[in-house]
Each structure stands twice: as structure tokens, then as C-alpha cells.
Amino acid sequence: MLAPVSEVRYGEEPLLALNLASARRWPAFAQRLAEAAGQSVGYRRCGTLVVAVDDDDRRHAEELVGFQRELGLEVEWLTGRRARDLERAVAPGVRAGIWVPGDHQVHNRMVLGALREAAVRAGVDVIERRAVAITIDAGAVRGVELDRGEALHAPVVVLAAGCWSADVAGLPAQALPAIRPVKGQIIRLAPTERAPKVGRTVRGIVQGASVYVVPRADGSVVVGATVEEQGFDNSVTAGGLYELLRDAHRVVPGITEMSVTETAAGLRPGSPDNAPVVGAVDPKRASGLVVAAGHYRNGFLLAPVTAAAVVALVVGDEPPPEVAPFGPERFVAAPARAGG
Description:
D-Amino Acid Oxidase, Chain A, domain 2, globular
């Protein structure tokens, strides 16, 4: 989901500005990537419908839409009936809805495939090996060490190892905050003759919790996602799947008529403030080291603006201004002044 508006949270206005800036880049980014790779990336301008299941959820949705309007975001309040008119697959009993036309979606696996193909076509050498250490000599990056001891030499290294970023050996002290894994389980469902067709992304507020149903062009849907602080555990659990299906059924009852094609669990990279870490490390610690990590739930949404920032930092240009609040230096403790 590319959902800066429907996922906005209190106190995250700087992150909202970054998310919106990246969302604006997505149409051109998707087109350029599709052309470079010769294949689709599944970008769909279908909008997002947020629905409230009961009266308490309606009050939560009213607070959310009020906050969104205070921020000047494009949203429309819907009665339960209007929400169902907009998306017939939604449960008849939903109390209200919020229509967010600017929140779109992209097919994550198609994007990854296209990125790889575009890179290969551009002459990039793809080395499918694990980098275990960054090599730094006299305060400057010299390259990386691979898992079998081989070395790759480079004057600039971009550290983008997801929730494992802070565990790469060789990092200087305070170059990167602790990036933790945050588990998320999802379910992929295929259409059947009995199941209704879902036309747009539906996010449900169910007893204060959130669930989403994301339709793909082929009629399949993705249901997600749990948020679990379970360390590096990426097992799929019966409890996680039950909660997803239970809440999704209250929002889109027809999904129980669909067939299960896949269950999966992944690890989001979360920073201490749950905002991305994008920027160059202080040259006094490691000249030539650029970080792109900690994107938490917004990795795909922030891909275009992160790419623009990383490219600018590598070639010595100015990165997009919206990235400025999210450099790694924000986690570095200021030195204590003499005399207290």
C-alpha cells in the first residue's frame, strides 16, 4: 500500500511530509521503472476506503478524519451506506467510512522483479552474497567483506540491510541506531466463483485494531498485517492468521469464500522512533558511508524519495529537503558541556 494519508499518525507530521513527497514521485517512478525493465510494476490508482465496524470504531474514525482535515489532506467522510455503495464487498453493517482517493497501491513482488531487471539492463553487477562487514580504513570507507572472505572495493557504500543493518560488522560507534525487527504476518487469497470481487484497497478499523484487504489486478487479495515485537522470529502462527481472518471477515465477509494460496511472515526494519534513517554518516566517523534503513511500514512508499536521496548523496548533490529530518545523526547524543 502507498498510503500516506490513511496511515497518518499523531505527532508524525515530518514523516507525513516525507511520505507525501514520495507518494507524489510514485507515478513517474513506476512509469520509468516499467520502461527500464520492460515489465509492469502493478501500480494502481484505486484509492483507499477506510471503514469503521462498530460505534466505537466510528468515533475513532471521526477523530482520524478530523486530524486528516486539520493537516489539509484530501479525505471524504462517508456514511456506512455510502461506503458500501463505493465498495460493494464491504460488510452491510459498517458504521462509517473515509474515502482517500490519493492513497494508491503497487505490487511489491513485481516492483522487486522490475528493479532487478532494470539494474541488470543498466549494467549493474548483482552479487547474490551476504555482506558481513564494512571495511573502513583511516576513517574512510574502502568497501565490504563478503561471507566467504572476499572483498569488494568501493569509495562509497550504501548500507541498506533492513532490520539487520545495525548488525553489520565494522560500523563505527554511533554511526547507526539499533534497527529492530517488527514481525508482520499476511495471507494471500485467490478468487473463487462464490467470492465477491474487491475493487479497491479496504482498511478496516475493528475494535480499535487495523486490518487491510488489498486487491490485485488478477482478483486475488492480500490480507494483513500483524505488528509483533518478536525479535527475529519470522514463523507463521495460527493465532496471527486467525486474528487477520477474523477482522478481515468483519470488514469484507466474502473473503471467507476465497482460497488460501499463501501465508507468510516478514520482518520490518524499525528505528527507535519508527521513522526512516536516510543520510550520510558523519565523515568524522566514516567518510563515504550512506545509510538507507529503518523504513518500518513505509519501505515501498518511500522507495522513490529514498532512491533520490541516496543517489544525491553518492554523487555529491543535495538530497530532497524532506529527507533532512531523518539522517542518522539525530540519534547521536550531544556531548555534555563542561560544568554541567
